[in-house]
Amino acid sequence: MSTVTVTAQDINKLRQATGAGMMDCRKALTETNGDFEAAIDWLRKQGQKVAAKRSDREAKEGVVIAQTSADKKIGYIVTISCETDFVSKNADFVAFAQSIADAAVASDVKSAEELNEVSVNGTKVSELINDKLASIGEKIGVSRFERIEAPYVASYIHGSYRMGVLVGLSKEAAEAGKDIAMQIAAMNPVAVDAASVPAETITRERDIVMDLMKQDPKMTGKPQQMLDKIAEGKMNAFFKEQTLQAQAYVKDGGKSVEEFLQSVDKDLKVTEFKRVALG
After folding, report:
1. pLDDT tens by residue, 26-51
2. Domains (ranges, CATH) in the chain?
3. What is the pTM of this model?
4. How far from 50 is each of 14, 17, 18, 41, CA to CA, in Å?
């Protein structure tokens, strides 16, 4: 039995993240002792059509800047978080976030900690943030920093600075890079391909598939070999829907992303990507 008190705020947070009903969210949190991520999996194991948990969710409000170095070989995502959309939509705050992102590019920083020590017009980023906090009265900070290197990196900012995407390519392809960055923004893949899906993600998805089959009366009495084969088919469907290269290309549903890339250049591949979203 759960020893954690489930609050209305907890329930509302889970409802916003999953779209599940209030009572289902309450039960999920109760059954998982208040563990938010476990509660999402609990809902999915009950057959609820909710989104798989993602690591790209960031602070509810803020500004996400995605940009590249001048030679397009390094990409950066800088997220400056705040508490309200009143601040995040303010042109001065967007400009403030952009100045910090520019500093990240100029100094080729490797981490959020390093970025806080970089100077902008003679003042450290950490000090600028403290000054901004004092002036606007909201908690702000560098809440997320991502960096990738590749022969060519494309960047994309979506939804009034609410999402940033970087995509590394094996060779220069500006137009294709932008198209793939937009694909990533829209379809939110978990990895480039099946081979790069984290082992823990595969284990979690397989566990959910097996639990759902156990609850299906049609599966009762089926031999384990058959269940394993069905599970393998469902996992293959997961890889097709959730990995970038296997996904249907949004601009031409008759092609996969991998097929689209090969139509541009037979040697063109995605090496890695980063996607950071507010909300």
Report:
1. 999 999 999 988 898 898 888 776 75
2. 1-53 (1.10.8.10), 61-174 (3.30.479.20)
3. 0.78
4. 10, 8, 5, 9
